[in-house]
Amino acid sequence: AQTVTQSQPEMSVQEAETVTLSCTYDTSESDYYLFWYKQPPSRQMILVIRQEAYKQQNATENRFSVNFQKAAKSFSLKISDSQLGDAAMYFCAYRSASAGTASKLTFGTGTRLQVTL
Amino acid sequence: NAGVTQTPKFQVLKTGQSMTLQCAQDMNHEYMSWYRQDPGMGLRLIHYSVGAGITDQGEVPNGYNVSRSTTEDFPLRLLSAAPSQTSVYFCASSLRVMNTEAFFGQGTRLTVV
After folding, report:
1. What is the pLDDT of residue A97?
2. How far apart are CA B46 and CA B19, in angstroms?
3. Is A44 within 8 Å of B106 when comparing Cβ atoms?
4. pLDDT single digits (tens) B53-100
5. Distinct helix (H) and strand (E) counts, chain B
6. Please, what's the largest Cα pairwise distance for chain A?
7. Residue B80 DSSP SS3
8. DSSP helix, strand, coil percent of chain B (3-state; round to 5)
9. For the range B25-29, what are the long-range contacts, defined as Cβ-Cβ under 8 Å and sequence gap of 24 or more?
10. Cα separation of B72 and B26, whole Å?
11. Who's near B16: CB < 8 A, 6+ residues apart?
C-alpha cells in the first residue's frame, strides 16, 4: 500500500518570502501522479499543482513549483512571494496510474501554513 | 457552475440515528468518491464509484453504505451513527478514473453525540 508522509505539521513564512513544504511517499509502482491540495479555512479543497511521475520536468503554476525527486520519493512544494491568501492547510496526495487502483487518492496528514506580515 | 454540491454543510446526530449525506455533480464525471477528514489523519477514502451502478469500498468503509443509480448522484448513508463517525466528509469527482483532477465538494461537518 502507498503511504504519504508530511513531516511538518506547521510552517510559518513572512509575506513576500519563500517557503518549502516537504512530502515523501512510499510506493513500489513506477507510474503515478502526485498532487498538492490547499485547504483554506473555508474547508474547500483546491488543487494547487500536479506532477506526473513519468515527467522529469518539475511542474510549476505561477508562484507554486515542485521539486520532484523520483528516486528519493520526495515531492516538495515551493511557494514564492508568499501572500496572506496562501495561509491554509496543504495536503500532499498520491494517485496510482494502475487501472485497478487508480481510483484512490492517498493523502498525507497535512501542513498548516501561516503567513505573517 | 455548480461543480460538486454536498448537502448538508453541518449536521448533528444522536448515536444510533441514520442519515444520508447528499452529493451531486453536474460535470458528467465518471468517477465519484467519499472521504472523511479527521485531525492529524488527512483524508481517507470511504467508498468510491467508477460509474453508475458500480461501487466499491475504500480504506474505511465500515458503518457506511453508498449507491450510484445515476451518473450525477452519489449519496453516503450512515446506518447507525456512532461518535467515531464525527468527522468532516468530502465528496469528490473526476472526469475519468485516471489522471484527471479531482473536484471536491465543500464538505459536511458531522457531529455524533
Report:
1. 80
2. 16
3. yes
4. 999 999 999 999 999 999 999 999 999 999 999 999 999 998 876 657
5. 0, 11
6. 47
7. coil
8. 5, 50, 45
9. B25/B72, B25/B74, B25/B91, B25/B93, B25/B103, B26/B1, B26/B2, B26/B72, B27/B3, B27/B93, B27/B95, B27/B103, B28/B71, B28/B95, B29/B71, B29/B93, B29/B94, B29/B95, B29/B103
10. 6
11. B80, B81
- Which residue numbers in chain A have pLDDT < 50? none
On chain A, the residues whose CB falls within 8 A of the CB of B104 are: 44-45
Q: pLDDT tens digit string along A42-53?
A: 999 999 999 999
**What pLDDT score was predicted for residue B37?**
97
Bridge partners, residue A77, by sequence: A21, A66
**d(C-alpha B93, C-alpha B49), whole Å:** 9
- Which of A105, A106, A109, A112 to substitute to test the interface with B, most B CBs within 10 Å? A105
Is any Cβ of chain B less than 8 angstroms from the Cβ of A38?
Answer: no
pLDDT digits (tens, 9 = 90+) for B4-53: 999 999 999 999 999 999 999 999 998 999 999 998 888 999 999 989 99
The DSSP symbol for A73 reads: T
- Verify whether the Cβ–Cβ distance A42 to B42 is below 8 Å: no
Number of Cα atoms under 13 Å in the Cβ half of residue A82: 22
B107 and A103 within 8 Å at the Cβ level: the answer is no
